[in-house]
Amino acid sequence: MSIETLSRKDQINQVAQNLFREKGYSATSMRDLAKAIGIEAASLYSHIKSKEELLQNICFRIAAEFFDEYDRVQNGNADPKLRFRHAVTAHTRVVASNLDASSVFFNEWRHLNEPSLSEFKAQRAAYEDRFKNLLKEGIEAGVFRKVQVSFAMRLVFSTLNGIPTWYRNDGALSPDQIAEQIADFLLEGLLKK
Amino acid sequence: MSIETLSRKDQINQVAQNLFREKGYSATSMRDLAKAIGIEAASLYSHIKSKEELLQNICFRIAAEFFDEYDRVQNGNADPKLRFRHAVTAHTRVVASNLDASSVFFNEWRHLNEPSLSEFKAQRAAYEDRFKNLLKEGIEAGVFRKVQVSFAMRLVFSTLNGIPTWYRNDGALSPDQIAEQIADFLLEGLLKK
DNA sequence: TATCTTTGCTAACGAACGTTAGTTTAAACA
DNA sequence: TGTTTAAACTAACGTTCGTTAGCAAAGATA
């Protein structure tokens, strides 16, 4: 969907995602946002309630995408290695296909106020727990090395959540391609066997 | 060195590191900073030139630490695997021992103005090149899998630069300990061999 | 065409921003 | 002790902030 066919409200959300990512939430003024769209700052308020509402929408929409994509690829039948791979590739695809929103999700969530802030943290913790369980199952099945589950989960998410710092979705590598390569990297490591 | 024995200027830098990390550079006001120290905002300017000078000092001091620690552990004699391990553990130690400054270095550098911004990017690129070369040597020596060097470097730094999002230097795990474990993770991967 | 609703505008509010000027206090030194 | 210097203070500057009020234009509906 090109940007011209979006409703103004959707357009505001999309441009806000991009500006919040590039400049940060606090350093992005409503006048910056309005100017990027081509209207006056006050006109934004015909479509949105507040600046923070924009941040909330961005953070919780992409959070829902993470959950949805995870649930879609976890049918519960596969072995631990494959289930972990599916989770990693699902997460990677969501990030790589939504670079602006993901960046905001990873870096700007702290500017949420209560009660959104607590809700955000709760959802994130629940999502992280799913990956911890996958790691635990892999270790118990003897497929993964005996690493600390919580520690490994943090390293995995560090790797995945850094994607927006370097990946450009410009056709050179598709989201699906980097998803598979990142899964290989996490599972196999750098060393040749 | 406890915070009481610091010069006021060093104290300002230290508190600024912490606030810039916790709230972000733009969301941290000079009044916030002054209040955390226990003086008035205007009094800060007896010791510093500007808010941006604080950011510059933080970013370039930790950048120098990265280079220094890298150079210290690279004597050039070791094999590719060990040289890579030394680079990773050196980087990790600097991050884990300077969580506030590292966070600012990773996340707030974009608020630098020219010419500091270009200088920052140049230094970072030079540092990243050292890791790319280590990866290239490891692949050519047949020790590392044949991955894209630039891609692997990005994944490595994503893993390392995410440390401040989860690590607390509270004695449970020392910087040296996580450095070794992270190096294992990057080299060996999750799968049991 | 007449009416209603949506979407934009200009103007402005009160608050917070980084920073400067000018002054007072405290510390260091003669 | 008297003098100099460093480091704090109060007050305020011009700017920008998110947001609101009130009004005009444009589009949809009757």
CATH class of the largest domain in chain A: Mainly Alpha
The main β sheet of chain A shows up as: none
Query: Largest interface: which pair?
Result: A-B, 44 and 44 residues
Q: In CATH, what is the homologous superfamily of the largest domain in chain A?
A: Tetracycline Repressor, domain 2
CATH architecture of the largest domain in chain A: Orthogonal Bundle
CATH topology of the largest domain in chain A, which one?
Tetracycline Repressor, domain 2
The outline of chain A comes out as elongated
Number of helices of chain A: 8
The fraction of residues assigned to DSSP E strands of chain A is under 5%
Summed up, the domain count of chain A is: 2
What's the assembly state of these chains? homodimer
Order of helices and strands of chain A: HHHHHHHH
- If you average the pLDDT of chain A, what whole number results? 95
Beta strands of chain A, count: 0
Q: What percentage of residues of chain A falls in helices of 4 or more residues?
A: 55-70%
